[in-house]
Amino acid sequence: KVLVSGGYVSSSAGSLSTASVYDPGANSWTATGPMTVARGAHASALLGTKVLVAGGNSRSTAEIYDPGANTFTATGSMSAVRGEPAMVAISATKAVVVGGDSGSTDLSTVEVYDLGTGVFTTATGKLPAGVIHHGAALLGSGHVLVAGGYPIWRGGAVFDPASGAVRETSFMD
Question: Which residues contact 157 (CB under 8 A, 6 or more apart)?
Answer without folding.
Answer: 127, 128, 145, 146, 147, 166, 167, 168, 169
